[in-house]
Design goal:
By secondary structure, the protein is α+β, with helices and mostly antiparallel strands. The chain is built from 8 helices and 7 strands; from the N terminus they run αβαβββαβααααββα. The strands form 2 sheets. Strands 3, 4, 5, 6 and 7 form a 5-stranded mixed beta sheet that branches. α3 packs across α5. The chain is globular. The model has no long low-confidence stretch (mean pLDDT about 90).
Length: about 250
């Protein structure tokens, strides 16, 4: 803010490990909707300490180290302008991973995927795109972590099948429709869902999609104080005013 000359602004840090970007955006949207602030900038970046964090896999294959860039993002949150996509904030719309979920993948996805959709009267198949951890597989596969994005989409599809919202035979076709290839640098929190936000906004403004769901998990166990993880989710939706006026 100081470097940009935003002299009337103040700021705060939102710390939630890999879920921090989504937690920060949800907080910003709530502050604007409540009228506390008119405009909130959500700004985040990678750290020098994480440059080349997956280097060992590349050295073992005698390759150049690929995760050699610092990712960053900036999002401006304002009141509804009748054009820009909106974040659903009504009761139950924001998903969370409670302590009771423990570390079970099924329980985690049930809480921050299925519950908020159920609260809004929606199903998984009502979401046009899902964004989760979007790490670049060209980097992650050499580190031994595999294709993180693909694994998460399979988990979402499996939950949709368990909830009887999708036929098992249709899983792969549905994944191809709602998913995407990971494209973000590994920088810890940077790949966590929000890199797709700008692309989702453009797609909504063009009328290509109506809804996108963003799911971010936090590795709380990294602080050595607990074995649990955390997580939040939110739904971005095409602005109904903009769509009705265009049609």
């Amino acid at each position: 803010g100081e470097m940009c000359g935003c002299l009337n602004a103040s700021g705060m840090d939102i710390k939630n490990f890999c879920a921090a970007p989504s937690s920060a955006l949800i907080t910003a949207c709530a502050l604007v909707q409540a009228g506390v602030f008119a405009n909130v900038a959500v700004v985040g970046g990678g750290s020098l300490a994480k440059l080349g964090m997956k280097f060992q896999g590349f050295l073992e294959h005698k390759m150049e180290i690929l995760d050699d860039c610092l990712g960053c993002m900036a999002i401006l949150v304002t009141k509804d302008d009748g054009v820009s996509p909106i974040v659903r904030l009504e009761k139950g719309a924001v998903g969370k991973v409670p302590i009771s979920a423990s570390t079970s993948d099924e329980a985690v996805f049930r809480h921050y995927l299925l519950k908020p959709l159920e609260n809004l009267g929606l199903q998984c198949t009502d979401i046009d795109r899902f964004a989760l951890e979007l790490q670049n597989p060209e980097i992650m596969e050499f580190s031994g972590s595999g294709d993180v994005a693909r694994k998460n989409y399979r988990k979402i599809a499996a939950m949709a099948v368990m909830a009887e919202q999708l036929d098992k035979d249709d899983m792969q076709a549905w994944i191809d429709k709602v998913g995407m290839v990971g494209f973000a640098p590994t920088q810890g929190h940077i790949p966590s869902a929000l890199p797709y936000l700008g692309h989702a906004m453009l797609a909504m403004q063009k009328g290509e999609i109506r809804r996108a769901m963003f799911l971010s998990r936090a590795s709380l166990f990294l602080n050595r104080c607990t074995g649990l993880l955390d997580g939040v989710s939110f739904i971005l939706e095409r602005n109904p005013a903009a769509f009705s006026s265009r049609s």
